[in-house]
Amino acid sequence: MLTGFKNFIMKGNVVDLAVAVVMGTAFGAVVTAMVNKVLMPFISGLVGAPNFDSFARVELNGNAIEFGVLLTAIVNFLLIAGAIYFVVVMPMNHMIERRNRRLGIDKNVKEEAAEDPQVALLTEIRDALKDRTV
Q1: How many other C-beta atoms can be found within 10 angstroms of the C-beta atom of residue 79?
Q2: Alpha-carbon span 31 to 78, nearest angstrom
């Protein structure tokens, strides 16, 4: 019973997943710090408020409808997405492109996959049946 559990834990995909969760958590802290301590103060300096929570607040029968909270969430999402794109995705794509150029790999040229013998046989049967006269 313990051997099966040990084999399950030691599978590559479980270990990879655990590493990804830990790295994602650590990276999330970096992105959150960059957004909260760098980008949001910069935006609040431009617009004069740290967030848009009080913007477009409407009272309806004693209930507050706060469109500004939604606007703040959208701005935070866009800032986080932009931070991830410009700090992680763009440099990583540039590094991959440089590596591919160095190795002589052209991503626009697709290798022709070898045709599956079963597909070739079925195509041949189909063509033979099509040519057969009734």
Answers
A1: 19
A2: 12
13: which 2 tokens? 């995909």
Range(s) of the domain holding residue 103:
2-131
CA-CA distance, 28 to 34, in Å (whole number)? 10
pTM: 0.54
The phi, psi pair for 14, rounded to 5°, reads -70, -45
Q: Convert the pLDDT of each residue in 8-56 to its tens digit.
A: 777 767 777 888 899 889 988 888 888 888 888 888 888 787 777 777 8
CATH number of the domain bearing residue 35: 1.10.1200.120
The Cα–Cα gap between 67 and 39 comes to 21
**Rounded to an integer, what distance in angstroms lies between the CA atom of residue 28 and that of residue 23?**
8
